[in-house]
Every structure is written in C-alpha cells, then in structure tokens.
Amino acid sequence: MSARHFLTLLDLSADELAYLIQRGITIKNRLKTQGPTYTPLANRTLAMIFEKSSTRTRVSFETAMTQFGGHALFLSPRDTQLGRGEPIADTSRVLSEMVDAVMIRTFSHEGLETFAAASSVPVINALTDDYHPCQLLADVMTWTECRGSVAGKTAVWIGDGNNMCHSWINAALRFGFNLRICCPEGYDPRADIVEAAGERVTILRDPVEACTGADLITTDVWASMGQEEEQAKRERDFDGFQVTEALLDRANADALFLHCLPAHRGEEISETLLEDPRAVVWQEAGNRLHAQKALIEFLLLGKVD
Ligand code: CP
Ligand code: NVA
Predict the structure, then answer these.
(1) Which member of 157, 175, 288, 297 lies 3.0 to 4.6 Å from 60 by CB, making a disulfide possible if both were Cys?
(2) Any bridge partners for residue 74, and if so which?
(3) Over the stretch 119-156, which tens digit does the pLDDT of each residue have?
(4) Is the CB of 67 under 6 A from ligand 1?
(5) Of all atoms in ligand 2, which is nearest to the CA of residue 54?
(6) In terms of pTM, does the model score above 0.70?
C-alpha cells in the first residue's frame, strides 16, 4: 500500500478527521492520568525538515516521538544538502530508505507536493505558504474539548487570507461548521479554496458584523513568515481589523478565541486579549502535541480504536 500523506486537511475524509480529534483527546487524557507509558512507535524515526522558524511545531513533534518511544530528527537546509541544491525528490527518496515518516515546514506548497510524490513514507505538512493543517487539528480539538461538537457552529476568521485561513476553510468543509472570513480588500483567501468550501464560507468586510452571534473567533499575524518586508504596509492595510475584547463581546456569550501563535499584541490582537478567559490559546498550543500524536499514529499504524 502506498503511504498516506497529510499535505492538507482534504487528504483525510471527514470520518478520519473526526476520528483524529477524538483520538487526540483520548491520547491526551491517557497522558495526563498515566504519564508517557504508551509507546507504539518504539524505534521509529520522524525526520523533521524546517526551512522556516518554529517553536510549537518543532517541540510538539519532537516530544510526540519521544513520548511514543521513537525518535525525531531535526534537519535544516543550513546543514543538509538541501541547502546546497540537492533536488527535493532525491532527498525524499533517500529519507524514505531510512526513516518512517517525514514532517516538512517550507515555503512552496508545490515543493512539498514534489517531496511527497517521491516519498514512500508518510509526509506531513508542518506549514507551507498555503496551508497549516496540523494547527487545525489542534484548533478543532480545542474547540471540541471546550464546547462539544463543532458541526453547524459558526467560526470567524479576522485578518489575512493566509495559510491558516486556507486551512480554516478546509476545516469548515470537513468538520461541517460555518466560517465567516473578514479580511481587508486585497487580502482575501484564494478563490479556488473558498469556492471548494461552497456555502460553508462567506466573506465579509466589517469585523463587528462578522463577529455578531459567532461561536468562535480566530486570527493570525498580519505578516507571515516570508512577508517581513511588507510589515509596515500591512499594519496600515489591516487598520481596524484588530481583535479586541469589545469585538468578542459581539459574539455569543460562550464564544472562544483561538490564535495559532506567535501573537503580536497591539497588532492583530489587543494588548490584553490573551488574558481574557475566552482566549484558550495555551490549551490550543498544548493540543498540538496530542493532536499530532493522533496523526502520526494514524499515518503509521492506522486506526487503533
Ligand atoms: N503555531 C505554530 O505553528 O507555531 P510555530 O511557528 O512556533 O511552530
Ligand atoms: N501565518 C503564519 C502562521 C505561523 C504559525 C505564518 O505563516 O508565519
């Protein structure tokens, strides 16, 4: 059987994704009550290629492999042959001979697809310019833990139509919730990704209108990795799109706030938003570990319960 890859959420069915969310919660609860005693990946190796910076993604994948009894290998272009021009597909074929799975954080989504096409072991997207599906596993897991089933609920994305926004769109489609996207003109998500989600997704311009009656609000930095030179222009263009406590007050009384982090206080969020009890961002960050354990286990061993 050829390897299953996780390049976007759409690589898995709705049933498989629902399984991963519940499995992440089970794995988390077992860790909290029994400690890291579950070691299904003894002697297995995950190669982690990072062409962009990371705190949460690196630590969560590395810790997941350690707690599962396996090993994670950090690789950067600076000190591998990738940085000296060895073709992506050649690197992929070599790693397939040695490791059990590969996780990649890179710029070009097409480059990731090239790598995956040449790989005979599972490849996981740990963020590209276009998608960040692993983050959405943790985000939907957090929303589910806090509020139960997300089907039919309404989430709001405020800010840039970026990689995170694209994965929120895919999540709306697969998990069956509604997504209002509120971006300034010129920063909409990709039209083909929006269209694929059909009636699940609407685009609005007014943050107050978007947040009224919502169940969850989320945002992200205005300038993503690789867009640092646009920071000043983006700060001007996103004026009026900051998420504040007052904006959350327009949402439902039990609404939650998520942010993938890192956050820029005073830009996309107010200085104090992360201290608001509606913000569950630390739980969200911690859930990267548990949700990705469920993902790695699924890709390597299949469903286990
Ligand atoms: N949210 C997220 O992916 O964080 P890192 O960039 O720190 O991995
Ligand atoms: N949109 C952000 C997400 C960081 C986790 C970026 O790509 O930099």
Answers:
(1) 288
(2) 48
(3) 999 999 999 999 999 999 999 999 999 999 999 999 99
(4) no
(5) 5
(6) yes
